[in-house]
Amino acid sequence: MVNKTLRVDFHTHIIPEDFPDLAAKYGDARFPVLEKTCDCGAEIFIQGKSFRKITDQAWDVEKRIADMDQEGIDIQVLSPIPVTLAYWSSPEAGLELAQLQNDFIASIAKEYLDRFIGLGTVPLQNVDMAIQEMDRAKHELGLKGLQIGSNVNGLNLDDPSLEPFFAAAEKWNVPLFVHPWATLGGERMPRHKFMYMIGMPSETALAAGSIIMSGLLDKYPNLKICFAHGGGSLPYLLPRMDKGWEVWPEIRKTEKPPSYYAKKLYYDSLVYDPVNLRYMIDRFGAEQIIAGSDYPFLLREVPSGKVVDALPSISEEEARLIHGQNALKFLGLHEMAVSK
């Protein structure tokens, strides 16, 4: 009998159907507003302008499960839609927004234990509040990690003000999923949907590069961080980063070159092309790559892990790791990883 490969989609987003109108509550149109257009969909508005259209897959759990069954996905890892991070808001409003989403995601994960795993969010614009909500998310709600944005109001993730947050994440063994948001160069990307196609991968590379170059991974060696979209452009920039580290000793904050630390991070597999995935495996190792689709959005891979299945040179063990086992181990679900 051939054992079935467990398939975990690590990168999926969800939003409550009754998402509150914080723009009206706080008198600030920058908050995302969810307006239903029909039973099957809605539109997210920011400052009165359409930000994106979404289908009911973004909140309808039964429809989500039906899609998973059709596509052969055993488990989804749920995280908020990044635009709801709202780090620019007041800490109090940011905490309210984080808590309502954490409560929502935790309720689904508890009701459907075999199908969903929850990631929470925190108001990183206030590190003390972020740590308090991380504590609640993990120890009270049972969420298995956090999604954080790639920058905090223009501060890269290596900003000293954020270090206590990373210290607490290591102390409590809270895995972090870094998703691009508020991308760099946004003013130069109004056309061609470049924000999604170029801005997000570039933003992710900057976030990963900031962590790699900062010395955080020397100081907090057990910190677990995964970057969306295959790390963006990071895999292809690493040789240049290594060269810079070599020729400019004055910038060095790490004991070893950047490529050494890049292999300690995790990356989802959302790169679409088997050639790119092969490059990632060769550069980072199969054990650092986690299948993820970006469900339920238009740029998602259907099904999650399609690029893994399309890679002819991948071994059965590498595929097994990427499809599911790496996700469970990253999230600290070792018993589930063994049983599955």
TrEMBL record:
EC numbers, comma separated: 4.1.1.45
Pathway named in the protein's UniProt entry: Secondary metabolite metabolism; quinolate metabolism
Top-tier EC class: lyase
Coiled-coil spans in chain: none
Pfam family, one: Amidohydro_2
Keyword Nucleotidyltransferase belongs to the record: no
InterPro entries recorded: ACMSD, Amidohydro-rel, Metal_Hydrolase
Keywords: Decarboxylase, Lyase, Metal-binding, Zinc
Keyword Translocase attached: no
Domain Amidohydrolase-related: 8-333
Highest taxon, organism lineage: Bacteria
Cited PANTHER family: 2-AMINO-3-CARBOXYLMUCONATE-6-SEMIALDEHYDE DECARBOXYLASE, 2-AMINO-3-CARBOXYMUCONATE-6-SEMIALDEHYDE DECARBOXYLASE
Record family assignment: Belongs to the metallo-dependent hydrolases superfamily. ACMSD family.
Subunit note: Monomer.
Annotated protein name in UniProt: 2-amino-3-carboxymuconate-6-semialdehyde decarboxylase
UniProt organism field: Sporosarcina soli
